[in-house]
Amino acid sequence: MVVNTDGSDCDPAVDLDVLNGGVDVVLNAGARNPNVECAVFRAAVAAVFGGAFEPVATPGACWFVEPQHRLRIEVGATVLGDRPGIFGSDPNLWTDRQIVTLGQKPAVAFRNLTGNEYSVYASPYGALDRRGHVRLQISAERERGIDTDVQPVLPMDVTLKAKAVVASVLEHHFGPGR
């Protein structure tokens, strides 16, 4: 197995035990190692989207991709970045912004203006104005090997699945007693 050791490449994620010890421990580890972010999301992505999606560690993020590359799922669990409550707030870039509750935690969900990307940012702390977030961004992509100029639109059922993944992650890794 190839392991992403220098953070400069895109390699299959290394399977890790997800750390226990609370929100701060997991988010700090996720900020340093995309393999931690992959581990946090691995079971939930497989349960909701199926086993064809494989995690890939990239510098600063974890992606789940399937062989045809019709969907790309980027996930994160980190203390880095802005407060989750500000994401999706620029109407020149985003639409359909909602504040929702997932896994008993507040989250912001929105799509881009072209309709091919959907994002969910949640606060594992329970406060959208606090730094640290769990995120999932899913994009509809042109299928590998298909030459077309048409950018696919993300189906509505995929947005529901995205919320289900984030809810599962919040309940399992950031729920009461964690």
Helix content: 25-40%
- How many separate domains make up the residues? 1
Into which percentage range does the β-strand content fall? Answer: 25-35%
Q: Kindly provide the radius of gyration, computed on alpha-carbon positions and rounded to a whole number of angstroms.
A: 16 Å
Low-pLDDT windows of residues: 1-7
Helix/strand-derived class? alpha+beta
Description:
This protein has 178 residues and is an alpha+beta fold. Helices cover 25% and strands 29% of the residues. It has helices spanning 23-32, 34-49, 156-174; strands spanning 11-12, 54-58, 61-65, 71-78, 94-102, 105-112, 117-122, 133-140. The chain has an 8-stranded antiparallel beta sheet with strand order 1-2-3-4-8-7-6-5. A hairpin with a 2-residue loop joins β5 (94-102) and β6. It starts with 10 loop residues before the first strand and ends with a helix.
